[in-house]
Amino acid sequence: MRLRSVLATSVLASMAAGSLAQSAAPADAPPASVANAAATDKPVETTRGKLSYYGRGFAGQATASGESFDPEALTMAHRSLPFDTRVRVTNRKNGRSVVVRVNDRGPAVAGRIGDVSLAAARRLGMLERGVIEARLEVLAPDASPAER
């Protein structure tokens, strides 16, 4: 937990110093609010269940939102959440979490609550297992830092 606080403080200090230039981000990069979401964002909805991931084999294919799938982006497929919804995904076995953005529909396999990108799966530590027990926390849209 302490490491997470130190990293968050470091990122915020870098942003304040202007060292994280937004112009350096690719045009199709997720909004800064997704990439830099605080671990303390308050969820408005929580779901638990099996989660899988999809990887490089789908790279470049159109997602349901119309954007090209990028396995290195922090995104996910969900059956019903609106596109661009921010979701904190937590691996219930190891406690690792990542904030992703919904940009696709799925998963195609019954009994699963979502599919995450390869980059998100890597951060969750689920590459070997492929399917994990996860907690999905839908984060409030456009939450200001004071509301987090």
Question: How would you portray this structure in words?
Answer:
The chain has 148 residues and is an alpha/beta fold. Helices cover 18% and strands 30% of the residues. It has 3 helices and 6 strands, in the order H-H-E-E-E-E-E-H-E. It has helices at residues 2-17, 32-35, 118-124; strands at residues 43-54, 75-77, 86-91, 97-104, 112-117, 131-139. The protein has a 6-stranded mixed β-barrel. The longest helix has 16 residues, at 2-17. It starts with a helix and ends in a 9-residue tail after the last strand.
Order of helices and strands: HHEEEEEHE
Counted beta strands: 6
| Strand order in the sheet with the most strands | 1-5-2-4-3-6
Structural class: alpha/beta
Largest sheet: 6 strands, mixed, barrel
Annotation field: number of helices? 3
Pick out the low-confidence regions.
1-37, 144-148
Q: How large is the radius of gyration?
A: 15 Å
The amount of beta strand, in percent, is: 25-35%
Helical amount: 10-25%
The end-to-end distance, rounded to whole angstroms, is 17 Å
Categorize the overall geometry.
globular
What's the mean pLDDT score? 77
